[in-house]
Amino acid sequence: MTQLQVVDIAHRFGRRGVLRGVNLRVGTGECAVLYGANGSGKSTLLSLLATRLRIQQGQCFLGDLDIQKHAEMARQRIILIGHHSHLYGHLTPLENLIFFRDIYRLDTTQDLLVQAITTVGLAPFIQQPIRWFSAGMKKRLSLARILVSHPDVLLLDEPYSALDHAGVVWINTVIDTFQKQGGLVVMASHDPERVAALDHTPWRLDAGILQPWVESNRC
Is 130 inside any structural domain? Predict the structure, then answer.
């Protein structure tokens, strides 16, 4: 069983403290949802877990793996899908996934990449540069990376943005399937109504302090 454990993480940008002694434990098949106002530290915490920012204080473990000391190994098991798609507009969906596969040295055939693109509903556009794609289409292509890399941990920063109702239903299905297959999820969101369809544990980040969600909280 895989477990993500955050131990007393604190982080500052200059003189401004963003996270203060954050502790979190998420196990196999679980989804932790972080609520909080803009600037509360949600995106910063996800970036630390994804090793995009260096941990200044505290530790984070994926199983027995210290993700700070073994960042490259951790990146093979963690995927972050955030506000920025990190896709290349001049490339097609297939070319973007080939680039992703090669960067992460994945043992994945081109046929499986095509299958992933088909699964996320982008087969009719497989040969088109994605610069013309809607935000929702780009979100779908970003999520195709899950099907390609099979990570242990899925980090999602506001995953419902730019999605219509059908897109919300679809992404919840993707997340639910990922959980049932043993993956663990940490999500930052402002949309408790959309998250409600998922089996999840809600948390509240307020002034850099993480606490269990209570019903009186509002985003």
Answer: yes
Q: Indicate if the pLDDT at residue 195 is higher than 90.
A: yes
Tokens of 204: 């509240």
**Distance (Å, whole) CA 121 – CA 171:** 12
The pLDDT tens digits for 23-66 are 999 999 999 999 999 889 999 999 999 999 999 999 999 999 99
Q: 23 lies in a domain? A: yes
CA dihedral 160, 161, 163, 167 (to 10 degrees): -20
**Phi, psi (degrees; rounded to nearest 5) at 209:** -110, 125
Tell me how many degrees the CA angle 38-40-45 measures, rounded to the nearest 5: 115
Token readout for 121 is 């509903």
User: How many structural domains does the chain have?
Assistant: 1
* Mean pLDDT across the chain: 91
- Supply the CATH number for residue 202's domain: 3.40.50.300
- Give every strand in the sheet of 16-27, ordered side by side: 16-27, 3-13, 57-62, 65-66
**Structural domain that includes position 107:** 3-212
How many whole angstroms separate alpha carbon 179 and alpha carbon 216?
28
Give me the pLDDT at residue 219, please. 47
Q: 122 lies in a domain?
A: yes
pTM, full prediction? 0.90
> H or E stretch including 24?
strand 16-27
Domain assignment of residue 217, yes or no: no
